[in-house]
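TL;DR need structure tokens for one chain.
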Amino acid sequence: MSVYDYTVKTIKGDEESLENYKGKVLLIVNTASKCGFTPQYKGLQNLYEKYGSEDFEVLGFPCNQFMNQEPGSNETIQEFCEMNYGVSFPIFEKIDVRGKNAHPLFQYLIKEAPGIVSDNIKWNFTKFLIDQEGNVLARFAPKTEPESIEPEIKKLVQN
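>> reply
TL;DR here they are.
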């Protein structure tokens, strides 16, 4: 199995296979608009702008499971991301990332890259780095700034 075996819904509600991203390095992130880590959108966008032309994608998955920090509709989320952080990388439909209703993609990511203390995703802006073959390489904590992941991304896109 790989991330390419999963289908997700775009922020507009259309089904999209992650197979569309085959051959690209991915940074999959659960996001929220009203979180202390929300300014990381800027760092994620910077990475996307810097490496997007080198087969790199950031995929954002809004989630409202952590203290209701993503209460808005999909449309509101998209507007917020574009207006406040200039986000142009793909943002998908709001989902659950932990518990019995967790989206199958995140169930897979957690299985492939368990956390240090707990397998569960602890908070918004947990990040998963995926190689060009769809393998989960690493999991990064919410407090890990996107910029600090850049050396690993750069190494992957230059292979």
